[in-house]
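pls design
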C-alpha cells in the first residue's frame, strides 16, 4: 500500500458527524468502513470504566461533577446531551458493540480532574481488552507517557503517545520526543496536524517510530494528513477523510 494510504481513525466515533462517544457514533464509524474508532476512557469511583471525553460530566451528559465521584451504575443512568435517547456508555458496552466488527480500537486512557491519574486504569483497560480477545486489535493512546508505560507493563502491545503542542514546543526538537518515546517503550507518535511537516515525519521515522496526526478535522488538515503519508490520523469527519483517501487512491491509479 502506498504511503498516502494513512489509516483513518474516527475521533470519538466521528464527533462532527454523530454525537461524540455515543453508540450511534461507533456504529457510524463501523458502517463507514473507518480503519479505527477512537474513544476515551475514565475510571469511576467503584473502579468501573466509562467512555466519555471529559473528566467531568456536564458538557456531554445530564450529570454533574467528576466522573471519578460517581459509581459506574450511576453514570450508566445518565443521558447524553447531544443524543438523549442514549445513556452514557460503559467501556464494556462499547467493547460489546465493537467486538463483532472488523474495526481497530484506538483507546485513549484519560486522566482525571487536574490531570490526576486514575489508579489502576491501565491494568483494567488492558484486562478487559484481553478478556475479549481485542488486545491485538487495539492501540492504547494517551497524552501522558506514564499512562503508556503503565499500559505497557500491563501487556498492551501497541502504544501511541499523543504529543500536546505545548509539550512539543517545550522539548524543542523531534529527537527529544523520539528519545522519550523509545525510552518509554512507545512505538508511535501522534502530533497535532498543524504541528507536523515532512521533515518531522522523516525524522520520527528515521528514529524507528511510526508517526500519525490528531485533530485533522478541516478539509485542508485532512488533505495535509493524506499528503504527508502518515501511518494514521484521527478526524471528527471520518466520512470526509475516507472520501479524500478514496479520491487520492483513484488519482494515483489513473496516473499510472
Ligand atoms: Fe480522545
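designed seq:
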Amino acid at each position: 500500500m502506498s504511503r498516502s494510504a494513512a489509516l483513518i481513525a474516527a475521533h470519538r466515533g466521528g464527533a462532527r458527524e454523530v454525537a461524540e462517544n455515543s453508540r450511534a457514533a461507533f456504529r457510524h464509524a463501523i458502517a463507514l468502513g473507518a480503519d479505527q474508532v477512537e474513544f476515551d476512557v475514565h475510571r469511576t469511583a467503584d473502579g468501573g470504566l466509562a467512555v466519555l471525553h471529559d473528566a467531568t460530566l456536564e458538557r456531554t451528559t445530564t450529570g454533574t461533577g467528576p466522573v471519578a465521584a460517581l459509581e459506574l451504575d450511576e453514570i450508566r443512568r445518565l443521558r447524553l446531551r447531544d443524543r438523549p435517547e442514549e445513556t452514557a456508555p460503559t467501556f464494556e458496552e462499547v467493547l460489546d458493540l465493537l467486538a463483532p466488527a472488523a474495526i481497530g480500537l484506538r483507546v485513549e486512557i484519560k486522566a482525571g480532574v487536574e490531570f490526576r491519574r486514575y489508579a489502576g486504569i491501565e491494568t483494567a483497560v488492558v484486562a478487559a481488552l484481553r478478556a475479549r480477545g481485542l488486545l491485538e486489535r487495539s492501540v492504547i493512546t494517551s497524552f501522558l507517557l506514564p499512562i503508556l508505560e503503565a499500559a505497557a507493563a500491563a501487556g498492551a502491545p501497541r502504544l501511541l503517545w499523543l504529543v500536546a503542542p505545548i509539550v512539543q514546543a517545550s522539548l524543542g526538537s523531534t529527537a527529544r520526543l523520539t528519545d522519550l518515546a523509545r525510552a518509554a517503550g512507545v512505538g508511535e507518535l501522534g502530533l497535532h496536524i498543524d504541528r507536523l511537516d515532512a521533515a518531522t515525519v522523516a525524522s520520527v521515522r528515521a528514529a524507528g517510530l511510526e508517526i500519525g496526526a490528531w485533530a485533522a478535522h478541516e478539509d485542508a488538515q485532512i488533505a495535509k494528513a493524506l499528503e504527508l503519508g502518515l501511518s494514521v490520523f484521527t478526524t471528527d469527519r471520518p466520512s470526509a477523510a475516507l472520501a479524500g483517501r478514496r479520491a487520492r487512491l483513484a488519482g494515483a491509479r489513473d496516473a499510472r
